[in-house]
Structures are given as C-alpha cells and as structure tokens.
Amino acid sequence: MARSGYKDYWKILQVSRGADQATIKQAFRRLARQHHPDVKPNDKAAEARFKEINEAYEVLSDPEKRRRYEQFGRFWSGDHRQASGGAGVDMDFQNYGNFDEFISDLLGRLGEGNIPGGFSASGFPRPGRSRSRPLDLDAETALEISFAEAFHGCERTLAVRTFGKNQESVQVRIPAGILPATRLRLKGKGNLQPGTGRRGDLYLRIRLKPHPVWRLEGDQLKADLGVGLDEAVLGGEIEVPTPNGTATVTVPAGIQPGHSLRLRGQGWPSSGGRKDLLLTVVIAVPQSPSPEELALLRQWAACRTRSPREAMAQQALLPKPL
C-alpha cells in the first residue's frame, strides 16, 4: 500500500481494471471464503485482509462509488474512510447461520450501497430498508427416540450448528414419560440473525419409534394380550409382561376377544405416578397343533351344544320393508 493511504481495490480483489460486475463478485466470493476467520481462526492478519476484501467490494460493486474512486482515488468518499482501514462493514461473523447466508447478506448490502445501520451512502436513513432480511429466529426439528428412552427418560447429546459447518454439542435431558409431539425448548440454540447477534430458540418435537409390543394412545399404554383357547374358556390367573418386568392378571372365564384387562399402576409414567396398562385380549389360535390337541378339539366339537354363530343368526337378517 502506498504511503499516501491509497488502496488499490483492483489489486486487493485480484482483478484487472475494467473488470465487469460478474468478475468482481466472483473474485469477492473466492477471496472471502479463503480469508474468512472461520477458515483461519485467531489470525489477525487474515481478519484484516478479510476486511480489506469487503471494503474493496463495497466500492467496486457500486457504480457511483466506483466512478468516484476511479476519478478521485483516495479522496473518492470525501471523508477518507478507506485510509483508516474500515469501510463501515459489519464484521460480526458469528451472527450468521452459515457462510453462504453471510455472503448473500453482504453482497446484498454492499451491492445496494448501504452502510450498516440502514443508512444510504448519502448519510440519510433509507426508508423502509433494513440491513437484516426478515428471519424466523426460532427453529424446529424432529427428535426420534425409542420407547425405552421415552419411558425411562434419558440424556441425548445433539450436534447443533453454530456457524457454517461448525457445530457444538448440546446435552438434552428427556424426562421420563415424555409424550409424542411434545416440544422441548433449547434456549438460544436457534437461528442467528445477521448483523444483530440475536439468536432464537431451537424446539425439538418428540417422535417415538414404533415398538413391536407397546403402543401409546394419548398417555395410555396399550398392547395385545395373547390368551389360549383353554385360558379364555376356563379363566384363571396368568402372568403377563410389562415394561418393567412381569405382573399377574386374572382372566375371567369365558372372556371374549377384544375385551380389555386393566393393570393399575403398570402403564406410562406421569407427574402423578404411573398410569394404568390396558391389555386387549386376542385368542391365540395354535398354528401347528399337536395330535393330542387335535384329538381333544374334535371331542370338544362333537359335544358342542350351541353354534358359535347363534347370536349372529338371530340378528343378521334384514327384512325387506313392506
């Protein structure tokens, strides 16, 4: 750089004098990525170089500024801002959700001749314009967990994006008995608003993986309970599985398929204690009965006194109206 304080913006962007806007923009993108502080952390020289690149692009991308720069050199702006090492561009990189967002926002601001703060190059406020485009700061994503994790509660370590491809690890505590569609709030882990430092919240919407036995309807834990033909006819006490082990339930004699058995305090966890577990009776018909079982079933069929379709036959007829 010359002692006079003149900065050769063409040289800074590595383009020839007379380069068109597309070439200038392409050079800016390439150099901005190369010297971005995320690429060279804790490198003051890289940060200063990055500011120079932004300053050069601010001038050369604006036709009026470029014309004055070519005509007046270091005195193009009338206030010698370029000689002081800063063109008024906001360099708070951590306020952006990713690098492309930063570049796009910066290209938009500099291309319009804006100075950060919503002011035009003339120094007067630009009506209805803001340097930050509208952005929904809160974000939401689904978090799929297993039945066991939801039932007992757990801790999950999640990778949350901070800037560009950078991520941070966040511990999330999932309480026991959490229900599907519940939203967990991670404060200050949402989207970044360019140029302001504001960051929204991240909401995790709980989704349960299907389970081969258990199903959850609201806060009611349910399952189908296989009952043998003899157990359904004779009744008695049987041992059944629960999420925490086993329990004993009484099956009434003559129970019908679809009937529900309730096990109190064996269901889904809640703030007031465990809910009840509902088991729906399903008759377990043997797929490959033994010769002894077949013989007994034939004897049973021979001494049956009522048809299992008797009730249906009495009510099924739909007489034609007169």
TrEMBL record:
One of its GO terms (biological process) is protein refolding. GO terms for molecular function: unfolded protein binding. Residues 8-73 form the J domain. It comes from Candidatus Synechococcus spongiarum SP3. GO terms for cellular component: cytoplasm. This is Molecular chaperone DnaJ. SUPFAM superfamilies: Chaperone J-domain, HSP40/DnaJ peptide-binding domain. Keywords: Chaperone.
